[in-house]
Amino acid sequence: MKYDIKGMGRRGFMAMTAVAAAATMLAAAVPARAATVEEIKSKGTITFGIVTDQPPFSFINASGKNEGYDIDLSQMMAKELGVEAAYVPITSANRIPQLVTGKVDMLICVLGIYPDRAKVIQYVAPYAAISASIYGPKGVTKIEELSGHSIAVEKGSSMDKSVTAAAPKDADIRRYDDASSAVQALLSGQVEYLGSYSHQFLGVEKAAPGKFVPNIVLKTEYLGIAVAPQSKELGEWAGEFMARHEKDGTLSEIYKKAFGTEFPEVPASMEGIPFTKK
């Protein structure tokens, strides 16, 4: 479903972003019971917030089941805890409120690592790296060449912020409710370009081989696992889990299964962003 704010203008969009940020901060202020390892073991379930439309991270397969790297990783965690994994589909707009209000115990959901988010959630560790680019027909190689052109992005995502900040003021940035809708907008010809990530472009290339290319690479982005700030014990457990399985090669095995490459080199620390992984 398309969310079109073309008539709102850049100032209006920034105001809307500020309101959304304030809502996230308000959600963070709502007290929620900490998710402890003992509590999770007692109830027999750990609940993960996941995406369902971003292969190979997480998607619904032909049998209607969750599949992907995020699912394999969460299943590993649940198995070590001796519990079942439960899943709650989330969006860019509601993932942090779902976490800080206790609707989910942990986020493994293609979540970019940023200092502003670290103020309201607790990152465990980076678990993947992706490149953020603007994709479209061959020819354009500079951001200023997108003047007057339409670009699809997922509303409220880090890609939305990156494209809004980088694109010319007269670029027609069209915001969609989810990543799949933004991709379909490009494939169907509703827009000329797509602001997206390397893993999402795999689906574009499969649907239209050779038709689109990464015109402009904006940045490399690290993705993180997160828990609520009050769930300190769970965060520390997850940090130890990640450190142990990065060392023994298990993370690389499941990463290679999903992406065809070894587990990437990820930073042990990032300025202004504490991790529970030591």
UniProtKB/TrEMBL annotation:
Signal peptide as annotated in the record: 1-34
Location (main, coarse): periplasm
Keywords: Signal
Domain Solute-binding protein family 3/N-terminal: 45-262
PROSITE patterns (UniProt xref): TAT
Highest taxon listed in the record's lineage: Bacteria
Pfam families per the UniProt record, alphabetical: SBP_bac_3
Keyword Signal: yes
Locations listed in the record: Periplasm
Gene Ontology cellular component terms for the protein in this record: periplasmic space
Keyword Lipid metabolism annotated: no
Annotated protein name in UniProt: Polar amino acid transport system substrate-binding protein
Organism: Sinorhizobium americanum
Taxonomic path: Bacteria, Pseudomonadati, Pseudomonadota, Alphaproteobacteria, Hyphomicrobiales
